[in-house]
Amino acid sequence: MSIAAKGKAAIARDGFATRLGVITATLGSAVGLGNIWKFPYLTGANGGAAFVIIYLACTLLVGLPVMISELVIGRKTRANAITAFQKLAPRQVWWLVGAAGVLSAFLILAFYTEVAAWVFAYVLKAIGGGILSTSPEVTSAAFGGLVSSPIQSLVWQWVVLAWVSIIIIAGVSKGIEAMTKRLLPLLFILLIIVGIRSLTLPGAGEGLTFLLKPDFSKVTGATVLVAMGLSFFKLSVGMGTMITYGSYFRDDQNIPGTATRVMLADLLVSMLAGIAIFPAVFAFGFQPAAGPSLLFITIPAVFSSMPLGSVFMVIFFILTAIAATGAMLSLFEVPVAYLNERLGWSRLKATLVTAIALAVIGSTAALSNSLLAEFKLFGMTMFDLLDYLTSNILLPVGGLFICIFVGWKWGFKELKQALSNEGKLENGGIVRAFFATAKIITPVLVFIVLLSGLGVI
Ligand code: PFF
Q1: Where are the alpha helices (H) located in 133-247, listed in sequence order?
Q2: Test site for ligand 1: of 112, 230, 243, most ligand atoms within 8 A of the Cβ
Q3: What are the pLDDT digits (tens) for 132-176?
Q4: Total number of domains constituting the chain
Q5: How far is the CA of 326 from the centre of ligand 1 (A)?
Q6: Domain limits at 138?
Q7: Which of 37, 167, 197, 414 could be a cystine partner for 175, CB 3.0 to 4.6 Å?
Q8: What is the CATH number of the domain that holds 330?
């Protein structure tokens, strides 16, 4: 028996036990630093509402169709991202799309765990009052002190890796599902509390206008590429995460319905994060265009300016840590599922090996503001390069091929069977609309935006 066959025979597959668990785990993957760190800083830096509108269009026409495609591939094959393609297209090169996905998950984790590391460190700092200052110079010095310390950057990344590993080792239903079921409701409640606080500040209106009133004069091809990259990153698609999670879906789960709900709830969280952040930023006269440091420099100063700000700041960073956790769990699960199923490794071994490999590769991101600050490739630090390469290139290219696979290789009949739960759901119209979008509209859009964003056209 080959190693792979032995592995497969030995392992009974875990999966999500309840319908609610499917939703919380999938939404837990989508909701993350993308909503609370990336969406606000990209919106802030790209002119506000116009960017939000382009992002919405990308989510509907690109993110959602790719998400449905991935989920259905996963559930149909009940396998990790690579094996899934091998099952559907044996002896063909499609498995490379899955392999690129496993690689992307790994590369995203390499920098994502570092941003999460800052968030975890900030929970402690917020509790201890170390970032309580209305002056951005002071909060900037606090952030600078954290990121320029190699030891602190590395140790907090290891703390994050250990925390996620523990949950992953516990399993799909007892770890991921159980954890996201508890944490997600808490995240919503905390976000609404902070949102109400921000909206009721005098002068909050300007921030809302920024978020809701578009000015398209700043939009370029590069802006659209960034918005599309965000829509991939946000819905955790283009890299096998949703193939892996789809493989744990129940047979009776309505995939298009679940994906649409997750997409809407994820948008809601992003808008709530925007509402929690921008009115307060404007109310206290700060700049929205600070870039990636918005969360770590501007936000603490904003909270410090408001009544009871120290309490709200602790709440805010705890909810951000929760959001980051659900997303990291799904990213981790991609390589772990592969190592577990293909090589027959136990979850414990697969998780530990992944975590150690991440500690090594991730250290390049962790040290990007200290020891490796001068080390640049294509003019970017390793941290920036990992972020740019994954969101703006690997995920869109992955998504493009996944749509081409579903639209052109798989065929409508089989897809309809799979998406209607073998004929049990009456969703012919939805499946047809999805098929046309995934077959033509999404690939064409992704292709054009990629070329124009990269300056080729
Ligand atoms: N969707 C997550 C977020 O917005 O923070 C990030 C992410 C998770 C991206 C899982 C990709 C992924 F596979």
Answers
A1: 136-147, 150-170, 178-199, 205-212, 221-234, 241-246
A2: 112
A3: 988 888 889 999 999 999 999 999 999 999 999 999 999 999 999
A4: 1
A5: 9
A6: 3-453
A7: 167
A8: 1.20.1740.10
